[in-house]
Design brief:
Helices cover 36% and strands 17% of the residues. The chain is built from 13 helices and 18 strands. It has a seven-stranded parallel beta sheet with strand order 1-7-6-2-3-5-4, sandwiched between helices. The protein has a six-stranded parallel beta sheet with strand order 11-9-8-16-17-18, sandwiched between helices. It has a three-stranded antiparallel beta sheet with strand order 13-12-15. It starts with a strand and ends with a helix.
Length: 416
Amino acid sequence: MQNISNYDFSGKRAIVRVDFNVPLNEKFEITDDTRIRAAIPTLKKVLEKGGSLIIMSHLGRPKGVEEKYSLKHIIAAVEAKLGAKIQFADDCMKADAQAAALTPGDVLLLENLRFYAEEEGKPRGLAADASDEEKKAAKAAVKASQKEFVKHLASYADCYINDAFGTAHRAHASTALIAEYFPNDKMFGYVMEGEIKAINTVLESPQRPLTAIIGGSKVSSKIGIISHLLDLADNLIIGGGMVYTFKKALGGKIGKSLCEDDQFDVALNVLSEAEKKGVKVYLSDAVVAADAFSNDANTVVCPSNAIPDEYEGMDAAPETVEKFRKVILSSKTVLWNGPVGVFEMPNFAKGTNAIAQALKEATEAGAFTLVGGGDSVAAVTQMGYADKVSYVSTGGGAMLEYLEGKVLPGIAAIQG
């Protein structure tokens, strides 16, 4: 494993896996360029040290070649941020000549890797009624061709950099398998380095008290991280739709609020384990409830265990947010993943925005604050606080799995 800061890129072609899976509107305009901006320091480092770049990424979830998922749509934006002209290979498997002709300072962007099933290693086009034998044969065929796919990509370059933390939890061709072709010339980019360092600060050497704020809609999707954090955190704040599962499990009335009845035992076990381990759990005790799932619905503030029958919880109420704020400001390390309300609706984003404000204040007071997850990142970004917290993670699913203690294939492939 090499280090990007002291590696000699002079005269070498570096193939770099980035995460340019950015959101595009109907005009193919980028609506959030966070991931592009994050990768620029790594890309510039190669060019500044006399190397050339071969950039590869995926975009969306295409089922083959789909024009709307072409990376050609982002070329102008990347050129503007990188300050360099970009060549484009409209087929990632037919870029041999372009890659071979690269000279120091040149940049080549490969077309969407997921236009090929081999990138993910999953068969496509199977009939809905395909037999188990047919499925097994199709999977074996893709795995066999995947080896050639990876070998071909690797042939373009002299060294490999993985800077796509957002896909580090996937054992895909470009994030994990390709590294074996560069046994002595593989390394993390600055995004990967930063993500690993930031998360390890929480997992391995946090200053205390450590407070974890876990929001979102479902207990089932967050139970892994919650369970792991019970061995690490001093305080656990649980917000968002998950709260109503906890409250109903405790005998409360939650109206029409989101709830996973099959997770009652899980929720109660979390509370029991937290008590045994001395972790203080804070739930959204007071919420803003609405009579419809709409930004313009009628609202009422009420206890989260006594919501009127025709109402549903939509946001943390001001008194709950103030309680959360006090916990956050008394902490030395804070992890935040997930909103505490229906963040996509402005009238129910107030609680989540208030959490973002509290993290900014905690950071200013000297706390280490790590933010990850789509809506959490959106909140600190929209409020102009992305550079006011200690670290903003670019990887949602990858961050969750890392925080759960899982080994990420994209990291293991570099570290060996």
